[in-house]
UniProtKB/TrEMBL annotation:
Lineage of source species: Eukaryota, Fungi, Dikarya, Basidiomycota, Agaricomycotina
Signal peptide positions (record): none
Keywords carried by this UniProt record: Endosome, Membrane, Protein transport, Transport
Protein name, per record: Snf7 family
GO biological process, one term: vesicle budding from membrane
Organism: Lactarius akahatsu
Domain of life: Eukaryota
Length: 203
């Protein structure tokens, strides 16, 4: 919550990769400068040729050719750097995978230790002993009860069975509702009239 997060550790491999990428970026910037020079020398050669200065145009083209050679060299250096960065990064992935495999193998070995034949046999023996112990307790309880106590236990068992059966029937029996009346409802005036007639017949 309030604790500071641990900063990731920078390894020597991380620094090496960073340095290589910085060199790569510098080479790319250098290539851009060379390309600008190439375009400029090309324009100078065209202008000098148009002005009738053939020798100056030739010098501009020679300078341009020299810069093209530098550009080719930087292309090769750039390719080597990128391959080296890719190789290092892939090697680090391989190391990580290898470390994961080692950990997985260690976990499997521990599991196999827990699941060896002796452990399984011991577990089966303990389970058999537990069943035998329970059987002995059941026999002891059965043999130590009097006939009246055994009859009382059986009667209590039947009572519990009857309660369970009764509860199950109540759950299955649908709730019965009274039928809806079919006669026409009697108005309040008709009810009063019938009551008067009933009282008159009694007097």
């Amino acid at each position: 919550m309030g604790g500071s997060q641990s900063t990731p550790k920078i390894t020597a491999q991380d620094r090496a990769i960073l340095d290589l990428k910085l060199q790569r970026d510098k080479l790319k910037q250098y290539q851009k400068k060379i390309q600008i020079i190439l375009d400029r020398e090309h324009e100078i050669a065209k202008q000098q040729l148009a002005a009738g200065h053939k020798d100056r145009a030739l010098i501009a083209l020679r300078r341009r050719k020299y810069q093209e050679g530098l550009l080719v060299k930087t292309d090769g250096q750039l390719e080597s750097l990128e391959q080296l960065v890719s190789t290092i990064e892939f090697s680090l992935v391989e190391v990580s995978v290898l470390h994961g495999l080692k950990q997985g193998n260690a976990v499997l070995k521990e599991i196999h230790k827990e699941l060896n034949v002796e452990s399984v046999e011991r577990l089966l023996e303990e389970t058999a002993e537990a069943r035998e112990y329970q059987r002995e307790i059941d026999n002891m309880l059965t043999n130590n009860l009097s006939l009246d106590e055994e009859d009382a236990v059986q009667a209590e068992l039947k009572e519990l069975q009857q309660e369970a059966l009764h509860a199950q029937r109540n759950e299955e029996t649908p709730l019965s509702l009274p039928d809806a009346p079919t006669a026409e409802p009697v108005s309040s005036e008709q009810g009063v009239l019938r009551l008067i007639l009933l009282l008159a017949s009694l007097t």
